[in-house]
Amino acid sequence: MDKEIRKIIEDMDFLKGIYRELITILPSFNITDKKVLPYGLKPHTRSVSWLVEQVITQQTKYRKRRLGLDDVKFDMPATCLHDCEIKVGKEIYYINVKIHNIDKRENKNDIAAVEKLYMQYSSNPSYNLIYACFGIAFKGINISFDADYLCLFSPQFLPIYVNPRNDKIQAYYHHKPIYRTRNQFFKRTSERVNKYSIKIRSLRMEEILNKIFNEDILNGIDRIPDNSVDLVLSDPPYCLGKDYGNNSDKRKPKDYLEWSKKWIDAVIPKIKNTGSFYIFLTWQYSPEIFSYMKSKLIMINEIIWDRRVPSMGGSTRKFSSVHDNIGFFVKSRKYYFDLDSVRIPYDPETKKARTRSIFAGKKWLEVGYNPKDLWSVSRIHAQDPEREDHPTQKPLKIVERIIKASCPEKGVVLDPFMGSGTTAAACAMLNRDYIGFEINEQYCRIIQERLEKLGKDTPLFSLENEPEEKDNEKIEEVLTLKFGDN
Ligand SMILES: C[S@@+](CC[C@H](N)C(=O)[O-])C[C@H]1O[C@@H](n2cnc3c(N)ncnc32)[C@H](O)[C@@H]1O
Prior knowledge:
The protein is 30% helix and 22% strand. By secondary structure, it is α/β, with parallel strands linked by helices. The chain folds into two domains: 200 residues, ECO RV Endonuclease, Chain A (3-Layer(aba) Sandwich), CATH 3.40.600; 241 residues, Rossmann fold. The protein has a nine-stranded mixed β-sheet with strand order 15-13-14-12-11-16-17-10-18, with helices on both faces. A six-stranded mixed β-sheet has the order 1-7-6-4-3-2. The chain has a three-stranded antiparallel β-sheet with strand order 5-9-8. The site of S-adenosylmethionine (SAM) has 21 residues, from loops.
């Protein structure tokens, strides 16, 4: 048997053992018992089956030590194919929990949208989804698990029948596995995708505009349709060991460069043909990254941002570094660029000095000059009114200049590394739409507050799952809902 197939079977056996243990510890529960949901009920829970799924994921986390697990994460965005991630050592298992009411007939059930599966598997070569299906029986408000029903399956081994009504793969929860390799599975799903003429489409644009996703850019990028973004304004970690409350700036140089290529490759298809891609870097890695980007895009400028660092001692064994390197790239020569919106007006004195006849009537004298590629803008000081609690916040003046020049009004700006949300704030003020990603939840909150101050409401994605006391009260509301589909 193929090694890859064997690994999936072993993973499923391992997880089945964990879940068997879980339902031995918790064979049944009362649906109104707050204790079964120690992290609170997810808002928007619409059915009892959703609730039971939450009990399973939360109890797995709550009892992780006893179950021999290192961690269980369940705050997945709503669009995610899996409900939780179980971490054991270096392994991460992606689990989708399903429920089957064993009093009912065994029907074919919708599993996952075929294009979503196709996209997720094709964009992440190490993604392996595992479904864990629990059989349950109701007695009034008491729910009990049936250990004999418990079954785990991989979409890779499913008979692929697509429900034409909703493009979802359908399968019986108990079915005979078809042992396909990843490539065979991939071929089969792509055939189905083509057969049903389903374009590999991402979520509709309106659903993602002006939102911040508390998510790794590499996980979230598929939300964005190809050729839909006017400007990518990116300020990634620099590989200088900065503390962003995570290890994102603490990679080894080789890993950093590999990772940079990965996210750059993922972002480029999202840019329109007329679009631009700006990237903030420092001198340490800009040569390698610029040279990689030049193999994919056209380089227009290297802008030097002089951070106007005051002269106070500084390095003694080299010249003090006081600049960032901003790369400006485009997809095609037809790129959008509005110089007039960023011209710098001449002061009256200079204007007066240029009264000689050769300057008369010159447009640039009236409208101002090109800002050139050396931008002297002070970095954000501790006392600066713009200041947010982020170690590498960029000044609005710089970000605004880039947006005005390279994104038309009502256009879309993608910032894969939002930090304190400078891009979002600038977009809100300049009448542009944005899509943002930021892995640090704390920073996402800063962005939200920053936008609120500007009178904008920003729905943050995936923060909605955090435990809240009041959510427990919703259990009773849920009781009144029918046992619905999940
Ligand atoms: C240089 S800072 C951005 C600062 C931002 N331009 C500002 O003005 O506040 C980089 C940010 O990227 C975030 N980050 C790092 N890796 C990420 C990833 N894979 N996906 C999304 N955000 C990430 C970090 O948490 C950090 O806040």
